[in-house]
Amino acid sequence: MPKTDAKIPKATLKRLPLYYRFVNTLHSGNVDRISSKELSEGLKIDSATIRRDFSYFGELGKKGYGYNVSYLLNFFKTTLQQDAITKVAIIGIGNLGRALVNYNFSISDRMQIEAAFDVASQVVGEKIGDIYIEHMDQFEKIVEEMGIEVAILTVPGKIAQTSANRVTKAGIKGILNFTPERLNVPSDVQVHHIDLGVELQSLIFFMKNH
């Protein structure tokens, strides 16, 4: 468990799923232990950053030994609550929303898109994979019945805030925002913004300045 007196930086928290996936791969390959240098080389993250990230959670390794892979895997499973399935809903079934439903977080069997919503009559009632697209009129009812914990917004920017308001009022505490809008939400709601334009601009900048 993390130290109770430590405020863990967001950058560290964002790297935890990367650590988990890498350690899980090591475990699947029957690797027993790994050094911070080997972690650094495998993850392309400098070893000082890895050691600093791990330090927020107490002693995860031993000097001269490195890290026990099974211990790290169990730690990250517990910390990231990988033993529980997180149910996700997506709002807005345009091209991007449709692609995400088709993809359906196949990178992890611990997260699953369970519901999809739109207001357009031409898509409501359509089935994508195993999921029927529901009308937003049913949103609150389905969220409560299914225990949805996270919402993905792929709606037009002009209705992003209205959609976010509805999501938070339904009790959802996590939003993955694919719209260009910055959302105002209660302090107990986490929002991660995915701006593809900004990410591409950042990528091109680093390519040209490497």
UniProtKB/TrEMBL annotation:
<dbReference type="InterPro" id="IPR022876">
    <property type="entry name" value="Tscrpt_rep_Rex"/>
</dbReference>
<protein>
    <recommendedName>
        <fullName>Redox-sensing transcriptional repressor Rex</fullName>
    </recommendedName>
</protein>
<comment type="function">
    <text>Modulates transcription in response to changes in cellular NADH/NAD(+) redox state.</text>
</comment>
<feature type="binding site">
    <location>
        <begin position="92"/>
        <end position="97"/>
    </location>
    <ligand>
        <name>NAD(+)</name>
    </ligand>
</feature>
<comment type="subunit">
    <text>Homodimer.</text>
</comment>
<keyword id="KW-0520">NAD</keyword>
<dbReference type="GO" id="GO:0051775">
    <property type="term" value="P:response to redox state"/>
</dbReference>
<keyword id="KW-0963">Cytoplasm</keyword>
<keyword id="KW-0678">Repressor</keyword>
<keyword id="KW-0238">DNA-binding</keyword>
<keyword id="KW-0804">Transcription</keyword>
<dbReference type="InterPro" id="IPR058203">
    <property type="entry name" value="Rex_bacilli-type"/>
</dbReference>
<keyword id="KW-0805">Transcription regulation</keyword>
<dbReference type="InterPro" id="IPR036388">
    <property type="entry name" value="WH-like_DNA-bd_sf"/>
</dbReference>
<dbReference type="GO" id="GO:0003700">
    <property type="term" value="F:DNA-binding transcription factor activity"/>
</dbReference>
<feature type="DNA-binding region" description="H-T-H motif">
    <location>
        <begin position="18"/>
        <end position="57"/>
    </location>
</feature>
<feature type="domain" description="CoA-binding">
    <location>
        <begin position="81"/>
        <end position="182"/>
    </location>
</feature>
<dbReference type="Pfam" id="PF06971">
    <property type="entry name" value="Put_DNA-bind_N"/>
</dbReference>
<dbReference type="Pfam" id="PF02629">
    <property type="entry name" value="CoA_binding"/>
</dbReference>
<dbReference type="GO" id="GO:0045892">
    <property type="term" value="P:negative regulation of DNA-templated transcription"/>
</dbReference>
<dbReference type="InterPro" id="IPR036390">
    <property type="entry name" value="WH_DNA-bd_sf"/>
</dbReference>
<dbReference type="InterPro" id="IPR009718">
    <property type="entry name" value="Rex_DNA-bd_C_dom"/>
</dbReference>
<dbReference type="GO" id="GO:0005737">
    <property type="term" value="C:cytoplasm"/>
</dbReference>
<dbReference type="InterPro" id="IPR036291">
    <property type="entry name" value="NAD(P)-bd_dom_sf"/>
</dbReference>
<dbReference type="GO" id="GO:0003677">
    <property type="term" value="F:DNA binding"/>
</dbReference>
<comment type="similarity">
    <text>Belongs to the transcriptional regulatory Rex family.</text>
</comment>
<dbReference type="InterPro" id="IPR003781">
    <property type="entry name" value="CoA-bd"/>
</dbReference>
